[in-house]
Specification:
The complex is a heterodimer of chains A (210) and B (341). Chain A is mainly alpha-helical and 210 residues long. Chain A has one domain (4-208): Alpha Horseshoe (Serine Threonine Protein Phosphatase 5, Tetratricopeptide repeat), CATH 1.25.40. Chain A is built from 8 helices and 2 strands. Chain A has helices at residues 6-34, 39-56, 62-76, 79-90, 104-122, 132-144, 148-165, 189-208; strands spanning 4-5, 101-102. Chain A has a two-stranded antiparallel ribbon. Chain A is globular and about 50 Å long. The model of chain A has no long low-confidence stretch (mean pLDDT 94). With 341 residues, chain B is an alpha/beta fold. Chain B has 2 domains: 14-187, Dihydroxyacetone kinase, domain 1 (Rossmann fold, 3-Layer(aba) Sandwich), CATH 3.40.50; 189-335, Hypothetical Protein Tm841, Chain: A,domain 3, CATH 3.30.1180. Helix content of chain B is 30%, strand content 24%. Chain B has 8 helices and 15 strands. In chain B, helix 4 (159-168) packs antiparallel against helix 5. Chain B is globular. Classes of the chains: A mainly alpha (210), B alpha/beta (341). Chain A binds chain B through residues 28, 32, 35-38, 41-42, 71, 74-84, 86-87, 121-122, 173-180, 182, and chain B through 57, 79-89, 110-112, 115-116, 118-119, 143, 153, 201, 203-204, 206, 208-209, 221, 223-227.
Chain lengths: 210, 341
C-alpha cells in the first residue's frame, strides 16, 4: 500500500480507539501515580467518540476524519491532554484540504505539523516528561524511514522507547511538575498513549497493507 | 495497596450532570443551568457591562458553582471531574457571558485550564468575537519560587479575585480595567495549603495518592499534586507558625498592612479545628502589625474529602475594601449591602 485513503483512515482511527480502549485501565494506573488517575478513561472515551462520529459521517474525506478526531479529543477529553492531543490533529486539518489520499511524504508532513502544534501550545520539549518525549522521536523516525511500512514500525518503536525514557525524568510541564523528584520511577501516561497510537497504526498496517 | 471509598453517587458518567441539576434546583433564585454544562446567573447582568466567565474541572465544590450570581461571576463552564472543559464549551460560556461590554476569561492557573482558554480565544478570533481577553490567576506560593510567580497554580486564594472582580464588573468598567483589577488582586494574594489525608476519586472510588497516618504535607494543590514536603503532623499552633512566615515573606507584607484572610477547608477538617487554627493566625498577624479587615472560614474550594486547609491572605487598599463590602449573591458567597458593619 502506498497511500491511505478515507476508508483506510477511518479504519486506522477505529484501530487506535480499540487499542486505547483495551489499555484504558493501564493508562489510568499510570496516571494515578502522576496525576488524577483518569487518563485512560478520558483518552479512551474521546477516541471511541471520534470513531463513532466518523462512522456516522456519509462519505467523509480524509480532512473530515482528521477534523472529527481533533474535535472529539478537544471537546470530549478535557484537561491539558485533551487540548494537546486535539491540537495535534487540528494543526493538520488545513494541510488536508482537497486531498483524497495520503502518501508517506504527506503523512510525514501531517505528523510534523501536529508535533509543532503540541510543542508550541504545551511549551514542552524533549526531557520534560510529557507526550513530546514519545511524539518527537516517533515523528523523526517516521520521516527518516524509506517506505510507509518501515516508517510506522520505526515510529512505534521510537515512541515506545521515548515513553520508557520518561520513567527516569523529573516533569517540567503539566500537573506532574509539582511532584518534583517523586515522579521519578513513573512513566508518563500521555507519552504512553502516543506509543499506543503508533503501535496500533503499525499493527493495522501489518494486517492491512498487503 | 489501594483503598476504596464508597461514594453516594449513581452512575459515575452522570456525576457532573446530576450535581449540576441538583445545584440548580436548590438555588433556582440565584442560578440556572444553560446547555453545554454552563451555569448562568438566574438574572443576567445589565447590557454593556463586562461579563466574567470561569471554566474549571469539577470535584472542588462549592467552587466554582457557588460563585455565580449577582456581584460575582456571570458564567461557570463546568468540566469533567478534575479536568478543564474543552475550547468549544468555553466558547459557549463566553457567548453566554457576553452582555456587549466584553468578556474576561478568568483562568485559575493549571495547564489544562490555560490551554483550553487559549484555544477558546483562538476560536473567538476565528468567529469575529473581539473584545474578549483572558487573565491568568495564581496564588499558591509552594508551586513555584518567588520571582517565577506566573508559573504558580491557582488555588483557594482566588476567592478574593472572584469577589472583588465580580463587584468591580457590576459597575461601568471597561474590559481592560477589569483585567487590571484582577491582576492587582492576584498580585496582592498569597496562599499556602496543608493536607493531612488523601481523598478518593468519586469515579473510581480509589484513593488518589498515598498518605501515611500521622503525616502532613505543606503546599498541596487542589488536585493533590505534591508540594513542599512531608513531615510528621504538628499541632494547630505549630502548623500555623510554620506557614505564616513564608507567606508573609513572599509578598513582603509589612506592619500597617490590612489584609483579607481566608481559611479554606479542603474537605473534612472540622470547624472546631479551623477556629483553633484561625485563633493562632489572627494572633500572629496582630504580632506582625498586620490588621485583618475581614476573615472567612469554611469550605470554599475543596478536593473531595481531603483533610486539610489553605491559609490565604490578600492585601487590600481602600478600593479593594469597598469592593469587598459591595453586595454579592452567590449560593456560597453572600454579602449584604454595605458589608457586615
Amino acid at each position: 500500500m502506498k497511500h491511505i485513503g478515507a476508508a483506510e483512515l477511518s479504519s486506522v482511527i477505529r484501530a487506535v480507539s480499540g487499542r486505547i480502549g483495551v489499555e484504558s485501565a493501564n493508562l489510568n494506573r499510570l496516571d494515578a501515580a502522576l496525576g488524577d488517575g483518569d487518563h485512560g478513561r478520558a483518552v479512551g472515551g474521546a477516541f471511541a467518540f471520534a470513531a463513532d462520529e466518523i462512522g456516522a459521517l456519509p462519505e467523509p474525506t480524509i480532512g473530515d476524519i482528521w477534523r472529527t478526531t481533533a474535535k472529539a479529543l478537544l471537546n470530549r477529553m478535557g484537561g491539558a491532554s485533551g487540548a494537546l492531543f486535539g491540537v495535534f490533529f487540528l494543526r493538520g486539518v488545513p494541510l488536508l484540504r482537497g486531498e483524497d489520499a495520503l502518501g508517506k511524504a504527506e503523512m510525514g508532513a501531517l505528523l510534523q505539523s501536529g508535533l509543532a502544534g503540541v510543542k508550541a501550545r504545551g511549551k514542552a520539549n524533549i526531557g520534560d516528561k510529557t507526550m513530546v518525549d514519545a511524539l518527537e522521536p516517533a515523528v523523526a523516525a517516521f520521516l527518516e524511514a524509506e517506505d510507509f511500512g518501515s516508517a510506522w514500525s520505526g515510529a512505534a518503536l521510537a515512541a515506545r522507547q521515548g515513553a520508557a525514557s520518561t520513567r527516569d525524568l523529573v516533569a517540567r510541564q503539566g500537573r506532574a511538575k509539582y511532584l518534583g523528584e517523586r515522579g521519578i520511577g513513573h512513566i508518563d501516561p500521555g507519552a504512553t498513549t502516543v506509543a499506543l497510537i503508533f503501535e496500533a497504526i503499525d499493527e493495522w498496517w501489518g494486517m492491512n497493507a498487503e | 495497596m489501594s483503598v476504596r471509598l464508597h461514594k453516594l453517587i449513581n452512575r459515575p458518567e452522570d456525576l457532573v450532570d446530576e450535581m449540576l441539576e441538583g445545584f440548580c434546583a436548590a438555588y433556582s433564585d440565584i442560578v440556572r443551568c444553560g446547555g453545554d454544562r454552563l451555569l448562568l446567573r438566574a438574572r443576567a447582568k445589565a447590557p454593556g457591562k463586562v461579563g466574567l466567565v470561569m471554566g474549571g474541572g469539577s470535584g472542588h465544590e462549592p467552587a466554582m458553582l457557588g460563585w455565580v450570581g449577582e456581584g460575582l461571576l456571570d458564567v461557570n463552564v463546568v468540566g469533567e471531574l478534575f479536568a478543564a472543559p474543552g475550547p468549544e464549551q468555553m466558547l459557549a460560556g463566553i457567548r453566554a457571558a457576553d452582555n456587549g461590554g466584553g468578556v474576561l476569561i478568568c483562568v485559575s492557573h493549571h495547564a489544562g485550564d490555560r490551554l483550553n482558554a487559549e484555544l477558546a480565544l483562538d476560536l473567538c478570533e476565528a468567529e469575529g468575537l473581539d473584545n474578549v481577553d483572558m487573565v491568568l490567576l495564581y496564588d499558591d506560593i509552594s508551586s513555584a519560587p518567588k520571582g517565577r510567580e506566573p508559573e504558580r497554580r491557582g488555588t483557594a486564594g482566588l476567592f478574593f479575585v472572584w469577589k472583588l472582580l465580580g463587584a468591580f464588573c457590576e459597575g461601568d468598567a471597561a474590559l481592560a480595567s477589569a483585567k487590571a483589577l484582577a491582576e492587582k488582586v492576584r498580585d496582592n494574594t498569597r496562599s499556602l495549603a496543608v493536607s493531612l489525608s488523601s481523598c478518593a476519586s468519586p469515579i473510581s472510588g480509589e484513593v488518589m495518592f498515598e498518605m501515611a497516618d500521622g503525616e502532613m504535607e505543606i503546599g498541596m494543590g487542589l488536585h493533590g499534586e505534591m508540594g513542599m514536603g512531608r513531615r510528621k503532623a504538628l499541632s494547630a499552633d505549630a502548623t500555623v507558625d510554620l506557614m505564616l512566615p513564608p507567606l508573609l515573606e513572599d509578598l513582603t507584607y509589612q506592619a500597617g498592612d490590612e489584609v483579607l484572610v481566608l481559611l479554606n477547608n479542603s474537605g473534612s477538617l472540622t470547624l472546631m479545628e479551623l477556629f483553633i487554627l484561625y485563633r493562632r493566625a489572627a494572633a500572629k498577624l496582630a504580632e506582625a502589625g498586620i490588621s485583618v479587615y475581614r476573615s472567612w472560614i469554611g469550605p470554599y474550594a475543596t478536593t473531595q474529602e481531603m483533610a486539610g486547609f489553605a491559609l490565604s491572605l490578600c492585601r487590600v487598599d481602600a478600593q479593594m475594601k469597598a469592593l469587598w463590602d459591595a453586595p454579592a449573591n452567590g449560593a456560597y458567597m453572600k454579602q449584604s449591602l454595605g458589608g457586615l458593619d
